[in-house]
Amino acid sequence: MRTRTDLYAVPQRSETLLVLLPPALSSIDDFDAQGFVSAVRQRDLPVDLLLADVTAQQVLNSSVVSKLHSEVLQPARANGYRAIWLAGISLGAFNALYCAASHADQLAGLYLMAPYTGTGDVLAEIRAAGGAAQWCQKQPSHQDERTWWQWLGQESLKAQWPTPVYFATGDTDRFLSGQRLLADLLPPERVRLLPGSHQWPTWKTLWEDWLDNGPLACRPQPRRFRTLPDQPDDLQQPLQ
Fold first, then answer.
1. pLDDT tens digits, 120-140
2. How far, in Å, are 74, 159, 205, 222, 237 from residue 84 at the CA level?
3. CA Rg, the chain, in Å?
4. Peptide bond into 162 cis (omega under 30)
């Protein structure tokens, strides 16, 4: 797994590591090109960044979780990081949820930007059950995205959130239908809807908003939230 680190203060390490996972058809180079790294540094947030490339092959052979654990989480803990956050866009958010379902105890929290929420058949199961909170109570263990849906549903039922999950998306995101199911599981104050679609300019806005108002912000500002609107099922479109 190709990674790149950007330290807050060279050569010392911060106590907090923020790991960024890119969307499909993108790489960690896009985080630099789209201003994600510079947005953190402009705010002088005392966090180290680690950009991690997840390849299509790792997604297809289901090795993402093991790779993230052995090549990102374990080394980070060995290097003394006390808080490790995972942030991902679209398929990157999908992979972050997969990792959290197995290793939530090693994470300080997640930030999901415009997450891809899985295939239409899985989402149809969840809707037919009345939502993920009801669905997760009847599901055996799985190896596909049902794994993290079940974890997220169980966390919602317990309502304790030792590993907090923050979620944001654009109000015309093409995966909004499935994202509504996910948002229903989260505390309303951790759900954010902003204008935009499933593309880099929107994701940059979501990123900057979280940096300014999320748990890592130096001085979070009060903000108003919007309810995710009903949308037709749009999850048969290609991943991005």
1. 999 999 999 998 888 988 766
2. 11, 21, 22, 25, 32
3. 17
4. no
* Domain extents in the chain: 3-213
Please state which CATH number belongs to domain 3-213: 3.40.50.1820
Which DSSP category does 73 fall into? I
End-to-end CA distance of the chain: 20
8 A C-beta contact, residue 67 and residue 239: no
Spatial CA neighbour of 129 closest among 185, 203, 62, 196:
185
Beta 165-170 vs 191-194: how paired, if at all? parallel
213, containing H or E segment:
helix 200-213
Query: Which residues, 6+ apart, have CB-to-CB distance to 50 below 8 Å?
Result: 3, 4, 5, 6, 17, 18, 19, 20, 72, 76
- Round to whole Å and give the CA distance between 53 and 88: 11
Instruction: State the pTM of this model.
Output: 0.89
- 41 membership: H or E segment, kind and range: helix 36-42
Q: What is the mean pLDDT of residues 150-170?
A: 95
Whether pLDDT at 156 is above 90: yes
Instruction: Average the pLDDT over 206-215 and give the result.
Output: 97
Inter-axis angle of helices 176-183 and 120-128, nearest 10:
40
Which of 56, 60, 89, 86 has its CA nearest to residue 72? 86
The pLDDT of residue 230 is: 54
Task: State whether residue 119 is helix, strand or coil.
Answer: coil
